[in-house]
Amino acid sequence: MANVEKLEQLYEGKAKKVYKTSDPELYIVEYKDDATALNGLKKGTIRGKGVVNNRMSNHMMRLLEKEGIPTHYVEELSDRETLVKKVSIVPLEVIIRNIAAGSFSKRYGVEEGTELAIPTIEFSLKNDDLGDPMINDYHALALRLCTEEELNTIKKYAFAVNAFMKDYLLKAGVILVDFKLEFGKLSDGTIVLADEISPDTCRFWDVKTHAHLDKDLFRRDLGGAEEAYQEMMKRLLGE
Ligand code: TMP
Question: Atom 18, ligand 1: which residue's CA is nearest?
Answer without folding.
Answer: 39
